Amino acid sequence: MLQLEHVKKSYDGVTILEDISLDIEDGEIVSILGPSGCGKTTLLNLILGITESNGGKIIFDGEDITDVPMEKRGFNIVFQDYALFPNLNVYKNITYGLRNKPAISTKEEVDELIRLLELEPHLEKKIDQLSGGQKQRVALARTMVMKPKILLLDEPLSALDGVIKESIKDRIKTIAKEYHLTTIIVTHDPEEALTLSDRVMILNEGGISQYGKPEDIILAPANNFVKAFILNQLEIKKNNIYRLFAAQMAQTQMSQAQVQQQGMQVS
Ligand SMILES: Nc1ncnc2c1ncn2[C@@H]1O[C@H](COP(=O)(O)OP(=O)(O)OP(=O)(O)O)[C@@H](O)[C@H]1O
Fold it and tell me: What EC number(s) has UniProt assigned to this enzyme (predicted)?
């Protein structure tokens, strides 16, 4: 279990995170959701260990890791831009971290991940020959072969569109469940957070606005910010889609009526 207790962070005297306390269970997918600049990436970096806090504790499996450096925490991150090596092929990118630590994953385990992420047809390709979704899957595989204790994902879907987004979402869920891997995801998109996660943490003005299951957030928003920021965005999206389909349905009904009328005129 990962626990944050009264974690604080400020930059140049400006408070970014005020008093963050939360528990994340083993194997849980948790999204950190909030508007731009609210401190989502800062919180992810504090957990990863590349940013130091100004107070509070981070505890993993009962051990205080607040002062444990990143390399010793055993967590791993997939960055927003994937940070893949363009001069290496897909297979070499995936296995890059194993060069100096080959014992971490067996060949069978690497092959299993490649299969799970459907990367077999791409292994010989260079990174610039891949689509965004394929790059994301390579970045996921490369991180997973190192068997992180916690998987951190910074805006994993923001560069992807519609169908690809849904497919990567499914892969992330499958990996988290199959490997019972605690997964923490930063996103600014309520739909993404609510459809991908077991629990969602909504950040605003340095604090946690609400932390709960997606259905709790939808059914019982804790305050006006959650209502305004999260639910309104979803409502707007829903209405836009309804409007689109309503227009399409009206068009279809009109065409059918025209066909019927033409049919009556012929007979
Ligand atoms: N190294 C730094 N030095 C000074 N200020 C920083 C630093 N890193 C982040 N900040 C500030 O901290 C605040 C939170 O930044 P952060 O990147 O965590 O937000 P975010 O919620 O991830 O935003 P976005 O969704 O736009 O990526 C911002 O006001 C940012 O300018």
Answer: 7.6.2.9
The residue count for the chain: 267
Per residue in 100-115, pLDDT tens? 888 999 999 999 999 9
Q: Are 137 and 125 in contact (CB under 8 A)?
A: no
Q: Which atom of ligand 1 is nearest to the CA of 34?
A: 21
CA dihedral 154, 155, 161, 165 (to 10 degrees): 70
- Establish whether residue 45 lines the binding site of ligand 1, counting it when its CB lies within 6 angstroms of any ligand atom: no
At 230-255, the pLDDT tens digits run: 888 888 877 888 887 877 777 777 77
Closest CA relative to residue 98, chosen from 133, 138, 145? 145
**Ligand 1 binding pocket includes 38 (Cβ within 6 Å):** yes
Tell me how far the alpha carbon of residue 116 lies from the centroid of ligand 1, in angstroms.
34
**What separation in Å is there between the alpha carbon of 11 and the centre of ligand 1?**
9
